[in-house]
Write a structure and sequence with these properties.
heterodimer, A: MetI-like fold, 2 domains, B: 14 helices, 76% helix
């Protein structure tokens, strides 16, 4: 009997030990995130002020700012969203609702799974050879935005499909029973009901695109740029202008990379400031995505 | 029961739209028009889905086309077996080995960090942690992979490197070790998330069988759940490997930019990705040697990751089919 008790005690001890190991390992990740934020805050917070956000880069660390790079990031994101969202959502709808099970669908599916695993810098090489030199789009905002759109396309497609998959079959059948065509089912039911899940995926994809550096360096984004692209709105008719699409650009992560690789410690402080802006934006976007996911899950019960 | 009126409403609305087609037009004409519209929409959606194939074709085509002139002047043998990579020197040498070595070492360090920790986290979250803890920890860990890699690069150079220098005196500022460790922490969620999904897909009855035989949680997790979920777990490992091979900014910032044929993680060395970044930063005329060499490096990188991606895809497919 005492043998039995001893074995039980031993087994319980094993479980306890692993519980502790598990918690410690989980904390490694969480603590690193904390250390990273603390490190950025300590180095960069002193640099973060209005002048920093509204100044162009400069040879002098204390005068340098991130104006041209955050404007560049914003414009690139507009292009990326306009290209990737319609394309990705449409592709997701096709694969989930329309596609028959055949070899072509199979190829598309394998292909998307593979695209999701292609290193981002390869997209940059593709854009350099194809968009910059073959299609002659130049090293412009348009090229940069399209490059990142290609990069996040698989994420948008997968998110759309997963959101559609959660909608019960009964909804579709009910709509068909009332005489809806396939597109009416998609347009009036599936799209609205899957909006929450799709939005979550889109926001997460865009937050990834904001932090991407390597593909934009590869297509030849500038590391030092002291002017802004032409504004999209004008005072004279036709009031909107698309000249900014052709403008050269820099983005926040490239600005940060440029500063962090300098030996001068003052510039490293600037890098921390830029990093702080970058990480606040990405974490905020992720928080919004998590919030949407949480609310959708709570509200919809089929 | 409360939801029913909410659900019925849009269905009825759609039905209204279907019926509200003007009765003056002949039913066959309306029908044909609507069928045509449906066909057109389906074709558009198909084109969107097919665009992903076009992107892949674009990637493969561009890589092959742009590197073909490189491989016309450099033999494959020199490229694969040469031990010097100096494409921009006056007397250029084109052996990819030093860059591949740098990539393998940083990837290796990252895996030594990420695989054990990621697996333990997955087992903990799937078999031990209460649901409330899991709901908080999982999104928190996923934030790790949301942090921009350039910020990780900063962290590796400004935080991890000085920290490791205290433990290992004589460690240079730029070294593959700190880049690899930070990269490993970054890919923990890739391992833990997918592995946890695989383990949670294992049917409860298998665990109950083990408990009935007198096993405790950890034995059940290691001897029953882990083997049952193995193909999914291995798929997550492979995803992590492919992610580490392709990672760029962390190594470009913290591991150094000099090609260096070494397998010692304490030394600085350039990876394939870091080389591409370094050359891209400079002036890069179309068709120059530098331009050609980054595509040659890109082909190497693409093939390395492609092998792992295909392997991972096959394994993932298989683990979905088991249960």
């Amino acid at each position: 009997m005492s043998d039995f008790k001893r074995i039980i005690a031993k087994r319980k001890r094993q479980d306890f030990v692993f519980n502790v190991v598990g918690i410690v390992c989980t904390l490694v990740g969480i603590l690193t995130l904390g250390a990273l934020l603390a490190d950025l805050l300590m180095d960069g917070l002193t640099r973060l002020n209005w002048t920093f956000l509204t100044s162009f880069p400069s040879r002098f660390a204390e005068r340098a700012g991130i104006l041209s790079s955050w404007v560049g990031t914003l414009l690139i994101m507009v292009v990326t969203a306009f290209a990737a969202v319609p394309l990705g959502v449409a592709a997701g709808i096709y694969l989930e609702e329309y596609a028959r099970k055949n070899w072509l669908t199979n190829i598309i599916e394998i292909n998307i799974a593979n695209l999701a695993g292609v290193p981002s810098i390869i997209y940059g090489l593709m854009a350099l050879g194809l968009l910059v030199y073959q299609f002659r789009l130049g090293q412009s905002v348009l090229t940069g935005g399209l490059t990142l759109a290609f990069l996040i396309l698989p994420i948008v497609i997968v998110a759309t499909r997963e959101a559609l998959r959660t909608i019960p079959q009964g909804i579709r059948e009910a709509a068909y029973a009332l005489g809806s065509t396939k597109w009416q089912v998609v347009r009036h039911h599936l799209l609205p009901y899957s909006l929450g899940g799709t939005m979550t995926g889109i926001i997460i994809a865009l937050s990834r695109a904001i932090g991407e550096t390597a593909p934009l360096i590869t297509i030849g984004a500038l590391t030092f740029i002291a002017f802004l692209p032409p504004p999209p709105f004008e005072s004279q008719p036709p009031f909107v202008s698309f000249d900014w699409l052709w403008s050269p650009f820099s983005v926040l992560p490239i600005q940060m990379f440029n500063w962090v690789s300098r030996p001068d410690q003052d510039f490293v402080v600037n890098a921390a400031g830029a990093g702080l802006v970058l990480i606040v934006v990405t974490l905020a976007l992720n928080a919004v995505a998590i919030l949407i996911r949480y609310r959708v899950r709570k509200r919809i019960k089929w | 029961m409360k939801e029913i009126p909410i659900l019925q409403h849009p269905v009825a609305a759609a039905a209204d739209q279907g019926i509200s087609a003007p009765p003056t037009a002949g039913p066959s004409a309306t029908k044909r028009l609507s069928r045509l519209k449906e066909r057109f929409i389906e074709a558009l959606l198909f084109l969107a889905a097919f665009s992903s194939v076009a992107i892949t074709a674009g990637i493969v085509g561009t890589l092959l086309y742009e590197s073909s002139s490189f491989f016309a002047s450099v033999s494959l043998k020199e490229f694969l077996t040469g031990t010097l990579w100096t494409p921009l020197f006056a007397s250029p040498r084109f052996g990819i080995m030093p860059l591949v070595a740098g990539t393998l070492v940083t990837t290796g360090v990252a895996l030594v960090v990420a695989l054990p920790i990621g697996t333990v986290v997955a087992i903990y979250l799937s078999e031990f942690a209460p649901a409330s803890v899991r709901e908080i920890i999982k999104p928190a860990l996923e934030l790790l992979s949301a942090v921009p890699t350039v910020v990780y690069g900063y962290f590796a150079l400004q935080f991890m490197s000085p920290l490791l220098q205290k433990l290992l005196p004589g460690l240079p500022t730029f070294n593959m070790l700190s880049a690899g460790v930070v990269m490993g922490i970054m890919i923990i969620p890739y391992v833990s998330s997918l592995s946890e999904d695989a383990m949670r897909a294992v049917p409860m009855s298998l665990r109950e069988g083990a408990y009935a035989m007198g096993a405790n949680r950890i034995i059940t997790a290691l001897k029953v759940v882990y083997p049952a979920a193995l193909s999914g777990i291995v798929a997550s490992y492979i995803l992590a490997i492919s992610r580490a091979i392709g990672e760029t900014m962390i190594v470009a910032i913290a591991a150094g930019m000099q090609p260096n044929l070494t397998f010692d993680p304490r030394e600085p060395a350039a990876t394939i990705t870091a080389f591409i970044v370094q050359v891209s930063l400079g002036d890069l005329p179309h068709g120059s040697v530098g331009y050609q060499s980054i595509f040659a490096a890109g082909v190497t990188l693409f093939i390395m990751t492609l092998i792992f991606n295909i392997l991972g895809y096959i394994l993932r497919k298989r683990f979905r089919e088991v249960y």
